Predict the structure.
Amino acid sequence: MKINFTSMNEQFKIADFLTTLDRKVNLLEKKLDIFKDFKKFCMEQLFAQKLRFKSANGEDYPDWEIFEFDEVFKSISTKSYQIKKSEVKSNGKIRVIDQGKSEILGYSDKESKIFSNLPVIIYGDHTTIIKYSDEKFIVGADGVKLLKNKGNNKLKYLFYILYNNNIKSEGYKRHFSILRTINLPIPSLKEQTKIATFLTKIDDKIEKIAIELENTKEFKKGLLQQMFC
């Protein structure tokens, strides 16, 4: 293998610049982990009711009540909104969401398959992965459950409490029937709103850091290609 060398002066400048980028990547990774741990801690405290919000005049909200899963959620059939995995494209007008770890599976242009009854919770029957969407999308492949709220509850709160009380995956099997056996603690609508708003702000910060981290990695990758190609 032949290696190209530049002057020592330029070598030092290149190395210093790339080292600075590496430090930034490391700092962003640590920052991301800190905010993820902070979110986990806050959720544990909030849903154990060790941390409570108060009303605008400083009064306590009513005690939480326990509800069965089917008292809180209703499931929507996905048949009208579903396409095959082979139909998913890398580019298109509409996002395709499935039960995988990634936020989206890909894209499609099949407007007849759009799900627009938003917001909605997306639950992976095989994977137990939970997602929340307030933008229109198409369902990718089988194994997706779409959940809406029953009664006067805030869906974003239900998303967080479901995430916190989610069952553990038992491999590639159906989990939704097990999920339906859990009970969920539900506070007043006003406290639900405050909890959901608080956790959403943390999620927004986590997303912002993750995007900056990814952009920094891509920037470094592009520089390396330009410098050493």
